[in-house]
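Hi L., both proteins are below.
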Amino acid sequence: MKQLFTLMMLAGVFTFSSVNAFAQDSTDVASDSTVVEADSAALEEEPAVAIAEEITEEPQEETEATFHQIVKEQFIDGGPTFMGIVLLCLILGLAVAIERIIHLNLATTNVKKLLANVESALASGGVEAAKEVCRNTRGPVASIFVQGMMRMSEGIEMVEKSIIAYGSVEMGKLEKGMVWISLFISLAPMLGFMGTVIGMIGAFDAIAEAGDVSPSLVAGGIKVALLTTVGGLIVAVILQLFYNYLVSKIDSLVNSMEDASISLVDMLVKHNLSK
């Protein structure tokens, strides 16, 4: 009986101790799992926080480049040698074009008003009064009138020849400087192509030294080489617009000169017949 009681006591002790041990183990496992979950949560939060900081910081760091900055970067990437020459062509071409525009605008004359003043001067004071009116008027049309009326004493045929001859002189003055604009229009793209060819040669030299065709190396060299061509074409387009405007302005002035010269001859014939 005592042995049975002792065995029951030992069984109870072992059972209690095993239960306590199992409870401690489960508690430790639970605590460990809690720590692991906390650590994993912390690890997951840290990248999220870092990504959030990067996302919030990126818009602050990135700033949109202005047009001036882009042009400046592309100019530097293209190389100062040929890009500088192309820029010089643009500056000189624009200088000549602006000078021609000012000259042609100053040469523009109100032909109808001039013809009316000449006709009234011929009717009131004769050829000398008409010549004085033309001398006080600015422009090629008035200069042609003066040259024609200076030959009035030699006949109408000499007046016509004088008008034609001096009209060619005035046309040459109007077209002065146009050849330089045409030169810069042709020169800028050629310089750009030359810079491209030289840049391609440099790119192939770099490939030969590297001993391997690297896409980044080839792409970078080709980009730098083509920038000079783009610059030359842009300069040519800008100058071509000014050139076409000047040509149209010259054509308009020449047409007005021819029409006014015919009207002057008719007035001089009418003036001679009225004497």
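That was the first. Here is the second:
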Amino acid sequence: MTAQQNGTISFEVSDFLLNCFIRSSSWQLWLPLPLSLLFFLAMGANATLLITIRLETSLHEPMYYLLSFLSLLDIVLCLTVIPKVLAIFWFDFRSISFSACFLQMYIMNCFLAMESCTFMVMAYDRYVAICHPLRYASIITDQFVTKAAMFILARNIFMTLPIPILSARLYYCGRNVIENCICANMSVSRLSCDDVTINRLYQFAGGWTLLGSDLLLIFLSYAFILQAVLRLKTESAVAKALSTCGSHFILILFFSTILLVFVLTHVAKKKVSPDVPVLLNVLHHIIPAALNPIVYGVRTQEIKQGIQRLLKKGW
């Protein structure tokens, strides 16, 4: 479809082309294999964790329900991003329809925000377990998990909805090559012929409001946990307290570190290759998803025992 603006003829875009690592072509040779392995590891590990928690009645507790929710989010994020990236690498399927691109954009923003919010709820769970152990069973209940899940869904579904809507309403008049492996908001929006200031402002404000507030509450929770742990008088009590939240803290560290590096590379984009933020954006959707179930499976005795029992039963 064509349109005429200011005496020139432009073409309205109906689909996009994803250009992955055009400046670092060597990455296209070695990256697909480890990315494929990480994808199958993430899918397999999260599926195993979900099945274990579902079938083992001893794991039917609020903390493991939250972990199941986290695994579901990881699976959806992986399926939304990685298969398309691998299709580009393996088969050069770079085309993506207009609607599919904005749907991917929405799911990525929404589910990453949900994951951040889930980490925040899990940090509160660990705070209650360490700082108010006698009240834990009365505070962290199945009803609490249900309400927390509803809050996570409602907050992030509605807060991230304007992102694809603002991008989709822009006029795309000719350029359709996205310099990215995925339909990231600003990578798509900068192709339009319209002013994208509102898009930039909402992405910035929404991102820092959602992720920033979650990280602040997470670190406050762990500050109170550390304060409570330092008051414990026996080494065994300290070790037990730290082990109960060690896995969770490791996962938050992975999630926030990749996010922080991604932000810093965008700030210093003139000093790094433009392909580096693209790589970090892809890895942010796969590395935490692959590590989350593994870290919990290795560090949580109840989950290890549950997996072993299921393996003995042959599922």
